[in-house]
Design brief:
6-stranded mixed sheet; 16 strands; 457 residues; 11 helices; alpha+beta
């Protein structure tokens, strides 16, 4: 899930903020720091960034690796060990194609498909951070980028792709060192998903499935309508007529009217009793009594998945899908403002390369403060105090940095005939509860920009 604010690292009791800021702080974890502080990424070692996408005509993967990783992946003779000259670009493209023909054969619907390598870029980065590259020097800073494509003849239902190259992790504390785990991303059927390649699990497998929003989000039933009042109109009318007639006759004090009144009244009662199933009218409860108030346990079962569904909206790629997914969990100004914030985070992610995702959301404590009908319209208002934890990570150059934060907030929830929506959020506490990682030095971004010496093939 792409996100747009960092997990906070201190507790701030009673901290108040605009509801947009609050929900952004709760939902968007990590990426602001990832984009603004690239020093979180390991440096001076092998780096690779893999981005998979499934299009109607082909499975595609954009591969970006530094020269350290390139030299681990294949043999490529060149004039200088720490630089690839633009004139060497065609030879490198041929070497990459030979390597891909062996190591990057995908299996699509059970049939091996050979890749096509194209679109090679070779950068010549700024040397500002060269002093930080003690082990690898310019080989750690310089990068190549290329596209790998597996053509499709028809819409696939099953794809399997294996990645074979796993250099030693220069930051491993083990002897011998562990091999690196490569964090990648796949965009398939309009959904983003994290992909991890490792020596122990080197295969990415995908099968076609439904990505309909209604099927990916947890289903939450809307408030139940109160059952209408059943009014036996024949019984009511007969009873009223009999009672009024008897009263009038008794009040007239005329001879014989008392006897008639005492005959009419039981007769009307018998007609009303036996006619109770005839001409029954269904009358809706008035105003704000039309919806049944949930019990506290039912309210908890509503709030937890409703809150969790907000995070699932970040899995989508298309703007309309993101908006539609959010629209099922939040409402009003909060919906539009949250959507705009998410969209801005996606633009930042595309521009700066760090990918952030929420991996788990866990409820810790939930207290239902109030459940009441709206005094004006037939809707339900709930006030909830909720404590939850969020696990997330930032992926950049194949490396993952994990965070866990805990939040305490007051949530305002509204239930209508169309469903439940979160309207307001007020943060009370926020705290990072995992052990912070050691922050290392930058890896030499920018990677491929206007100042690079690029070779396009």
């Amino acid at each position: 899930m792409p996100l747009s604010a960092l997990f906070f690292t201190r507790t701030t009791p009673g901290f108040r903020m605009h509801h947009l800021t609050a929900i952004v702080c709760c939902l968007m974890c990590l990426s602001s720091a990832a984009h603004a502080r690239v020093e979180l990424d390991p440096v001076d070692g092998p780096h690779v960034d893999l981005k998979l996408s499934l299009d109607p005509d082909a499975l595609r993967m954009q591969v970006t690796m530094n020269i350290v990783f390139l030299d681990d992946a294949l043999d490529f003779e060149r004039e200088l060990p720490d630089r690839i000259d633009p004139a060497e670009g065609p030879a490198l493209l041929d070497a990459l194609q030979r390597w891909a023909d062996v190591d990057l054969v995908a299996e699509i619907d059970g049939v091996p498909v050979n890749p096509i390598v194209d679109g090679l870029l070779i950068n010549d980065p700024d040397t500002t951070f060269l002093a930080l590259m003690v082990r690898t020097g310019m080989r750690g800073l310089r990068k190549v980028r290329f596209d790998v494509e597996w053509p499709l003849k028809s819409e696939p239902s099953d794809i399997s792709l294996q990645w074979y190259v796993y250099p030693e992790d220069p930051f491993s504390s083990l002897d011998p060192p562990e091999s690196i785990t490569i964090a990648a991303e796949a965009q398939v059927e309009g959904i983003r998903e994290a992909v991890f390649f490792s020596m122990e699990a080197p295969v990415w497998s995908w099968r076609s499935g439904s990505t309909a929003i209604s099927e990916r989000l947890e289903a939450i039933a809307p408030p139940e309508a109160r059952k209408p009042w059943s009014v036996p109109m024949l019984s009511v009318v007969t009873g009223v007529i009999g009672l009024v007639s008897s009263i009038l006759l008794l009040a007239s004090r005329r001879s014989g009217t008392s006897l008639v009144a005492f005959i009419i009244l039981p007769c009307a009662g018998l007609v009303a009793y036996f006619g109770s199933g005839v001409a029954v009218a269904q009358i809706q409860p008035p105003g704000n009594e039309r919806l049944r108030l949930p019990t506290p346990s039912e309210a908890e079962a509503i709030l937890v998945p409703l809150h969790g569904n907000i995070y699932r909206a970040f899995d989508y790629v298309a703007e309309t899908d993101i908006y539609d997914a959010l629209d099922r969990s939040v409402s009003g100004d909060l919906l539009d403002e949250l959507y705009r914030t998410i969209y801005a985070s996606l633009v930042m992610e595309e521009a700066q390369g760090a990918v952030s995702r929420v991996t788990a959301v866990r409820p810790v404590e939930l207290q239902i403060d109030s459940i009441a009908p709206d005094p004006i319209q037939p809707e339900i208002l709930m006030d909830v105090t909720y404590r939850w934890q969020v696990d997330g990570n930032v992926t950049h150059w194949g490396h993952v940095h994990e965070r866990t934060n805990e939040y305490l907030a007051e949530l305002g929830v509204r239930g209508t005939e169309d469903g439940w929506r979160i309207e307001t959020v007020r943060i009370l506490e926020q705290e990072r509860i995992d052990e912070p990682e050691e922050e290392l030095a930058p890896d030499g971004l920018p990677e491929f920009g206007n100042d690079d010496e690029d070779v396009i093939l």
